[in-house]
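ok trying this again, last paste got cut off
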Amino acid sequence: MIGFLRGRLTAKAPPQLVIDVGGVGYEVEAPLPVFYDLPPTGSEITLFTQLIVREDAHILFGFRTERERRMFRELLKVSNVGPKLALALLSGMSVDNFIMCIEAEDVDTLVRIPGVGRKTAERLVVEMRDRVKGFGDLTAAIAAGSGTQQPVVGPQAEAFSALVALGYKPAEVTRLLKGVDASVQTTEELIRKALQAAAAK
């Protein structure tokens, strides 16, 4: 099992990126919020990883935190939820927002994620209800034990999650945020500019 990769970022084209580790290029698929926090190409990065083995391929998935990876693993245990749908869920909302949806039984928000129908959303609520309990406690223990801190979610990722929660498709949100001037740094301003651009269409 490959637990994490640390190496030089050589390419990034959502949902895939390539990490050069000792001269070997690892292709990794990652949820969209990962890409908002990536440094420039050529920089060193570290991602927690999960290897999925299929008959026709071995696919490596990458995450910013152990918490994201654990949620990905829990999602795969849900009936009829595969890696692609789990990745879509983590692209459409943060782990915290997903947990809030499960605890509130908010099926309507879940079905806004591409690929998530009402039956799947209802199944997620039922099967994930017990699994999300104590999620934060375990994450804190892992971080404390490793001597590392959880990275702070950046304004881009927060704006992305908020806009998806408002009903915008992830692909459209990506386009809207890319159109916002790079000088804009706060979550609130990013959301405001993106909404203005959407309204001007």
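PB: full thing came through this time. DSSP finds ten helices and five strands in the chain.
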